[in-house]
Specification:
The N terminus and C terminus are likely disordered. The protein is globular. The protein is an alpha+beta fold. The longest helix has 19 residues. The protein has a single domain, classed as Alpha-Beta Plaits (2-Layer Sandwich). The chain has an eight-stranded antiparallel β-sheet with strand order 4-1-3-2-8-5-7-6. The chain contains eight helices and eight strands; from the N terminus they run αβαββααβαβαββααβ. This is Stress-response A/B barrel domain-containing protein. It comes from Volvox africanus.
C-alpha cells in the first residue's frame, strides 16, 4: 500500500484529519498483527479482536506550587472513580509517575490516570464533559493535565479487554510519546509500522502483558502514542535500555546508560519526545476488580 502523507492541520478539518487517521491506523494494525483471518468470518462468528479507545490523562506539576501527597491521592482516587459515572468505560487505572523524561524540560509529569472506552464518541464526550471538568477544577490546583486519545485493537477476551485478573492488579504502565523525526518530511507509513512493530517485539521479550499504540487524535500535530503494561518496574527498565528505545531517544536523557548522547540520529522515522513510567496498584481503588 502506498504511504499516506499526514495532512496539515491548516488545510484539513478535524473530521477529515481523523478520517485519514483511521485509515492509517487500520493499515498499521493490519501490518503489526500477525494473526488474522484470510477471509471475512461468518456473521455469527466471534471476532478475534475488538476496537477500543485508550484515553490517558497526565497530571503535570506546576512551577508555582505542588500538591501534598494527600491531595495527589485524592485527585487520583477521584479521577479513577469517574469511570463509574461515565458510559462506555471498560476499565481504568491510576498511579503516580515514578519516572519521566521529556525533550521539553518544562513538562514534569507527576501522576496519570488511564481509561479504556468502547467508542471514540464516549471517550471524547468524557474528556470534554462536565464531570471531568469539575473534578479538574476542584482538585488540580495550579497544575495542568495533558490528554491523549488513540484507537487500538485488543483480543476479544474478558481479561485482556477489561484488564482483569491478578496479572493486571499491580505493575507499571510505560507510556512513550513520539513525533516525526523530521516535521518537514512526514515518514512513510511502512517506516512507522516498522518502529511500532520493533517496540512491540522488544516489549514482549521484556515480559510485557499488553501493548497498545496508535495515532493521538487529540493532537493537532502528528503524534504517536505507545503504552505497555509490565509486571515489574525492572522489566520496564530493561525495555528502556534496549536498542529499539535508544534509537528513538537520541539526544534525550531518559535516565539509562548511554542516553543523552550527542551521536547523530540514524535517520529514523520517529523520535521520542517524552516518556512516563506509572506505578499501578498505588491507588487503593485501582486494586479492585472492575
Amino acid at each position: 500500500m502506498q504511504a499516506v502523507a499526514w495532512p496539515s492541520s491548516c488545510k484539513f478539518s478535524r473530521a477529515h484529519r481523523q478520517h485519514l487517521t483511521s485509515i492509517k491506523w487500520h493499515y498499521m494494525q493490519r501490518q503489526v498483527c500477525s494473526a488474522r483471518l484470510a477471509r471475512p468470518p461468518p456473521a455469527t462468528a466471534r471476532a478475534d479482536t475488538v476496537p477500543v479507545w485508550e484515553t490517558l490523562v497526565i497530571v503535570n506539576s506546576s512551577p508555582e506550587g505542588s500538591q501534598t501527597p494527600e491531595e495527589q491521592q485524592e485527585l487520583l482516587d477521584t479521577l479513577w472513580s469517574l469511570q463509574y459515572r461515565t458510559p462506555g468505560a471498560c476499565c481504568a487505572s491510576a498511579g503516580p509517575v515514578v519516572k519521566s523524561a521529556a525533550r521539553d524540560s518544562n513538562a514534569a509529569a507527576r501522576a496519570a490516570v488511564y481509561y479504556r472506552f468502547s467508542s471514540q464518541v464516549q471517550a471524547e464526550r468524557f474528556v470534554a464533559g462536565p464531570v471531568f471538568a469539575e473534578a479538574k477544577a476542584r482538585l488540580l490546583g495550579t497544575g495542568n493535565v495533558s490528554l491523549a486519545l488513540w484507537k487500538v485493537l485488543v483480543p476479544n477476551d474478558m481479561e485482556a479487554l477489561f484488564k482483569r485478573g491478578p496479572a493486571f492488579e499491580t505493575g507499571v504502565d510505560l507510556v512513550l510519546v513520539m513525533q516525526p523525526a523530521s516535521p518537514q518530511q512526514p515518514p512513510a507509513m511502512d517506516a512507522i509500522v516498522e518502529v511500532m512493530g520493533r517496540l512491540q517485539r522488544t516489549a514482549l521479550a521484556a515480559n510485557s502483558l499488553q501493548v497498545s499504540c496508535g495515532v493521538d487524535v487529540m493532537s493537532l500535530d502528528p503524534r504517536y502514542m505507545w503504552m505497555a503494561r509490565f509486571p515489574q518496574e525492572d522489566c520496564a527498565q530493561r525495555f528502556l535500555r534496549s536498542p529499539a528505545v535508544a534509537e528513538l531517544a537520541t539526544g534525550m536523557d531518559i535516565g539509562t546508560a548511554g542516553s543523552a548522547t550527542s551521536e547523530p540520529s540514524r535517520g529514523g522515522a520517529l523520535a521520542l519526545t517524552s516518556l512516563a513510567l506509572i506505578e499501578i496498584g498505588a491507588v487503593k481503588q485501582s486494586r479492585q476488580s472492575l
